[in-house]
Amino acid sequence: MACRQLELVTEVTNIDPGIAQRLKVPKRSMVVAVPIRMDSGQTQVFIGYRVQHSLTSGPSKGGLRYAPNVDLGEVAALAMWMSWKCGLMNLPYGGAKGGIACDPALLSMGEKERLTRRFTEEVLSIIGPRVDVMAPDLGTDEQTMAWIYDTYSMKVGYACPEIVTGKPVELGGCVGRREATGRGVVFCIREALDELGIIPENATAVVQGFGNVGSVACEELHRLGVKVVAIGDRYGAIRNPRGIDIPALIQYVNSPGNVLHTVQGFPEAEEMDPAELLTTPCTVLVPAAVERVITEANAARLRCRILAEGANGPTTPEADAILAHSDIFVIPDILCNAGGVTVSYFEWVQDLQQFMWGEEQVIAQLKKLMRSAFQRVRLEAKRRNISNRLAALSLGVMKVANEKARRGLFP
């Protein structure tokens, strides 16, 4: 998917073929064995990955995910998308991504800590605050980042908070970082609603995923006045045509008795078939879970006006071709979910300067950059009569390509 998207950009831009070839291949890829002692006393070996797609614009930046199906191809594609995302948002980063093939739900806290610290040790030679900066992703959180921060700091001999972003606030994390991706999604949705002349109070939303991105997006949509009528997670889906009480749902999901932290069983909504979630009629559809959920099999059956891609790569190229012939307003992933890396940038800058911002300043700056990027994408799409996705990709790719052209090819 990622390579095909890059090819589409090369077809509609004047990018140098040699630079396009360089952009198609990651700068650096590392595969490591991560052996740890399990709580049972047995040793288990996990496979870890770190891919740095580009170092042209600055240090590479990207999340670290823990998931059973992580492989090198997936991590490389996500690293490439991160390059375009940072380019689109005008951030001084290249793209990177990491992952460990494991199921974090089956690991104890101690096992996750040992896994994280050993992985950090294995990739130590290619990370650094001016080389590669990690952040949380699927299956990881601020505690994971705290372990990486501590492990790296122990190795270099001094506290180095700028080695990761998305860490706890008391360790130099940025206020508002956890909510940043979901907030950014809703900032984009608000811009799209305004452009289409839709009043938020008259709009409905369906959200797939109720993790970090989905839950915050639901909160922000609820605060905006949009009625969230259906929500799904990995365990099931619920709906309420009159609107789901989001504060009550969050309280239910986080209650001690809800061991799986699932939306399933919420008393103020009815259960629904998860397969029907994406095709539920609504104003705004937010896929905020995993990639490749909108395919040629279901794209024609979407019944939304706005598709806001909170997840990375939720729409396949085949589905994109179908959506191109519909009236669905697509907010592409590299724009829609860029709030996370944007506030990660804010955190990195604060750590480098040892000067921390307040939450109001963080939110105001995030809103400013997200709105600016949205408007640039729409201007490019209208000017060249291309889709929002191709416009966003073109802006991101061309920024990196122009920087490569200016720097030249060494030696």
Automatic annotation (TrEMBL):
Sites where the protein binds substrate: 61, 85, 344
CDD domains (UniProt xref): NAD_bind_1_Glu_DH (cd01076)
A single GO molecular function term of this UniProt record: glutamate dehydrogenase (NAD+) activity
Highest taxon of the lineage: Bacteria
Active site (record annotation): 97 (proton donor)
Stored PROSITE patterns: GLFV_DEHYDROGENASE (PS00074)
Pfam families cross-referenced by the UniProt entry: ELFV_dehydrog, ELFV_dehydrog_N
GO biological process: L-glutamate catabolic process
Gene3D superfamilies the record matches: Leucine Dehydrogenase, chain A, domain 1, NAD(P)-binding Rossmann-like Domain
InterPro entries associated with the record: Aminoacid_DH-like_N_sf, Glu/Leu/Phe/Val/Trp_DH, Glu/Leu/Phe/Val/Trp_DH_C, Glu/Leu/Phe/Val/Trp_DH_dimer, Glu/Leu/Phe/Val_DH_AS, Glu_DH, NAD(P)-bd_dom_sf, NAD_bind_Glu_DH
SMART domains: ELFV_dehydrog
This protein's UniProt keywords: NAD, Nucleotide-binding, Oxidoreductase
Annotated residues for binding of NAD(+): 181, 212
Annotated site location: Important for catalysis: 137
Domain Glutamate/phenylalanine/leucine/valine/L-tryptophan dehydrogenase C-terminal residues, every copy: 174-408
Family classification: Belongs to the Glu/Leu/Phe/Val dehydrogenases family.
Name this polypeptide is given: Glutamate dehydrogenase
Organism: Thermogemmata fonticola
